[in-house]
Design brief:
Blueprint (H helix, E strand, L loop, with lengths): L3 H23 L1 H11 L9 H29 L3 H23 L3 H21 L1
Helix pairs in contact: 1-3, 1-4, 1-5, 3-4, 4-5
Amino acid sequence: MNNAASILMLAFLTLTFLQSGYEKIFYWKDNVAWLKEHFAQTKLKNQVPLALFHLLVVELIAGILSAVGIIQLLTNSGREYGFYGAIFSCISLLMMLFGQRLAKDYDGARTIVIYFIPAVIAVYWLN
């Protein structure tokens, strides 16, 4: 198991982003309603469904690439899919961080940093 840490990190990213994507798909209306209220005082107030859709796409790409990256590491020690999964994870988290900062939700932004650190570590390890 030369890649145990990378596999564990990719498992974390896979679970995080596929679960988040699942919740956005199956609870779309609830998410949109909550986010419209959350961004009511920002420039995103009229763009919430479109922004949420873009975030959903990036999260699903991150989760799927991370899952395929685990398989790739287990089968042939390739790192490409996991690397791009980690990159898309970072992009997704930066999108969320931007939104939280725009909404002046600094506690929410701080929480995103907790997820961002392992994602950046995964990028570093898989590069």
